[in-house]
Amino acid sequence: MSAYSATEPSAASKWVAGTLVTLYMVITLLPLAWIISTGFKTGPDSISYPPKVIFSPSIEGYVNLFTDRTRATPEQLATMPPPENFVDEIVQRRGEVITGPSRFGERFLNSVIIGFGSTFLSIFLGTLAAYAFSRFKVPLKDDLLFFILSTRMMPPIAVAIPIFLMYRELGLSDTHLGMILLYTGVNISLAVWLLKGFIDEIPREYEEAALIDGYTRFQAFRKVVLPQAATGIASTAIFCLIFAWNEYAFAVLLTSGTAQTAPPFIPTIIGVGGQDWPAVAAGATLFLLPVMIFTILLRKHLLRGITFGAVRK
Amino acid sequence: MQDTPPATPADRLARATPPTLARKVRGLSDRSIAWIFVAPTILLLLAINIFPLIWTIRLSFTNFRANRPNEPLEWVGLRNYERILTDPDVWQTMQATAHFLFWTLFFQVLLGFALAWLINRKFRGNDLMTTLIVLPMMLSPAVVGNFWTFLYQPQIGLINYAVEFVTGIPASSFTMLGSVSLAPWAIVIVDTWMWTPFVMLICLAGLRSIPDYIYEAAEIDRASKWRQFWTMTVPMVLPFLMLAVLFRGIENFKMFDLVVLLTGGGPGDTTLLSSIELKREAFEKWRTGYSSAYAIILFVTVFGLASIYVKALNKVKER
Fold it and tell me: Rounded to whole angstroms, how far apart are CA atoms A208 and B224?
């Protein structure tokens, strides 16, 4: 680049832009920082006014998140054996005893099972369909692709009414399988559109060379196209996973116990007299952190993922 | 490519003349492969999307109630549709939805474009900052919405404290989520916080797609920066911006999770968006037939608006 360029912004304008964007970034990340820090506060610290920025960290929130407790009178506490570990100690110091593990672990596990199950299925079906749409003459191709996309325009509650009735008939209500199938049905449009874009970018010559070398179409797909599309498949998978992980509307309407995921559960974490904010924050932190990490890993393909492949960089 | 088999001339010759039987077993025709590959996806979509849609249409002409499945089913024709379209309460939820839709799009476009424009100055660390700014939009709206109710608490919340700190209005004198006049704005603020990065990312792609030589040519012609911005930057980013508005528009028309956890539709019915109203009718009052008709009306509205919009978008793109 030459010393003077019409398109290179001046140092001053860079400085101003950098300052403004930094300011926005700090403000926009403040709520997230607040979630994470509240998870390490004690109950009184979390609701003190003015809000406490500096506090002595405690794992009370995490203890509350993972346990069910009940109040105990001082006499009862006196008869109890001395606390065996630091968790018991924290709880007993507040005049409570642990009655068992909370449901959070199960709900989190449900999120993992349903998230990974539906992602696997979406990617499996989506890759096949995307390859066919990318390489073959499928009759009514454009109509089918648009049809696949338009399924996303339905409000989830509108879909939930008949799904609710259908699942009740089929015995799929509140089951992992039911939720996996449902999320796959929702995610498949994203998977097909994104993967078609990624496969379109792989030169056909590679497969043609393989076909000439005696591979069947299927072998060429498996041994030539799939390895080339690996990055695209991985990022599509992460998008599907994040959707299933975050989904709330279907989860709250169609699951109540066995298959309930974490998003409908976290807002119901209640302490004495209202929500137990440190526990809610602890649950939110554990739930949101994986997505934050995935987002950072995905940053190169982010734009593509959120626009169904309409915008590529 | 390490997977390609070694292809000596002899190998090729051997493969070029395989036994007819082997050929039959090995190679399905491209056409049948295409069908085998596409069919499962189509079947799944038929089962999870189309069949339910048809069922909803059918239910919308009945007085079916899902909590009393054994009652005799009565066909009511278009009466559900008639009742919805003439119900003033429904129009109020439409108004609340329109308010939410308009202002979220307005702020997100404004802030998103401004941010993209600033980030495009290519200052140091802009890549890292972009990634961090994007974080909110990837998170679970339900979990985030629930936590924002904490930030909005009048006595202890961070937002009220910040308002007091900056403007001097006492923090306990107003409740963002509990006040009829503030709640519609409170949900706009959270949605804008969450989704501005979405518009920003798409605008940034638009800005980066403008080739440098256009600006160099304008510089030679001595076009002012102001003029360059309005005659070159804006028109070239417009298709991208419109695409972002399309995506956000559809999503926010369907908005449920974030707002239901923030306000649940209240106070009064001031933040009762149509999806929340639909949920109440369908899963709390169990008026399944009525809410099916409501669902169809919403779907037709969003589909119709989106189709018109896409036509406009294509016109802009062609220019």
Answer: 52
